[in-house]
Amino acid sequence: MNIKKTILFSIAVLIFASGFTSCKRVMTYITHLENKTANKPLARVGDLYLYRADIPEIVPQGTSTEDSIAIIAKYIDVWATRQLVLSEAQKSISETDLTKEVEEFKELLLQGKYEQSVISQKLDTTITDEQIDDYYTQNKTNFSLNKSIILWSYIPITYCEKDLEKKLRSAFSRDTAPNVRHKKDEDNKEDSPWTWAGSIENILAEESYNVPFVKDQWIEVDKIESSYEVENGFANNVAQRSMYTFTVKKNDNTYLCKAHRYIRKTDIAPKEYVEAQIRSIILNKRKIDVIKQSQDELKKEAIKNNNLEIFTDNENN
């Protein structure tokens, strides 16, 4: 350990122990330490000592003397507090109980590490759409909603010009194709069938209005109410009006929205709303199965190698 670090440690100890702030005293102590490099203790708790050599490299290069002293003093304080807490804790638990708990924790830790290793090596994480469909169909009654939800789409209109906003509002409120004749392209083929989302995207492209258009997203009604400024009677309106168009505000931004579907609390959730949950359920079941299979293989191998015996009562008598 070099002279500079020794000096910093010693100053930190003085600050920790007495809280002095006299610059004169600090400078005097620095002078006194210039030729002293012995590994003297910095702090003591009971019979435990913290020595200069025990302090890790915790002071970054280029740190000022004042900040270095503060960092080391903090380390000493944390060490001393930890030792006091451990000392007090040992008084409330017997050595036998502590040894037993440590052993149990060790066993749980080892078991957890083993299971993680098995899962990483053997778990199949691929889940197909068909598997999700099958699970949803067979377990629909388990997906009863505890909150009302809507399928909504929205777009920010905060910086819309009035004419564009008017056009977007009209398009948002439309549920069917406008009553116009199809135009034909150069190949004499009719345009693609009309869709609500497509009509919005066409307007955005025509007007070069580059904003995110969020489509067909399931969300809880009360989450909208808690996250946005909504109109009075919003919950009733969205529940009673089919294909309801509305606006919400958040952080000085305004969003034009449309509720495509409404599903009330206690009804069965749509598959799309619980798809992530189903994936998690399937994956967790596979983890359990993989671990169980691995444990069975271990027992089978142990019996084969005469490393496992199960004694019955008859055999013990």
In short, what is this structure?
This protein is an alpha+beta fold and 317 residues long. The protein has helices at 3-18, 23-33, 65-91, 95-122, 129-138, 162-173, 196-206, 221-227, 234-240, 271-304, 313-316, and strands at residues 41-45, 48-51, 149-156, 214-220, 244-250, 253-263.
Question: How does this structure look, described?
Answer:
By secondary structure, the chain is of the alpha+beta class. Among the domains are: 89 residues, no CATH class; 102 residues, Roll (Chitinase A, domain 3), CATH 3.10.50. Helix content is 53%, strand content 13%. The protein is built from eleven helices and six strands. It has a four-stranded antiparallel sheet, sandwiched between helices. A two-stranded antiparallel sheet has the order 1-2. A hairpin with a 2-residue loop joins strand 5 and strand 6. Helix 6 runs antiparallel to helix 7. The longest helix is centred in the last third of the chain and has 34 residues.
Characteristic terms for this protein:
317 residues, alpha+beta, single chain, two-stranded antiparallel ribbon, flat, 13% strand, Chitinase A, domain 3, 53% helix
Secondary-structure map with pairings?
Layout: H1 3-18, H2 23-33, E1 41-45, E2 48-51, H3 65-91, H4 95-122, H5 129-138, E3 149-156, H6 162-173, H7 196-206, E4 214-220, H8 221-227, H9 234-240, E5 244-250, E6 253-263, H10 271-304, H11 313-316
Antiparallel strand pairs: 1-2, 3-4, 3-6, 5-6
Helix pairs in contact: 1-2, 1-3, 4-10, 5-10, 6-7
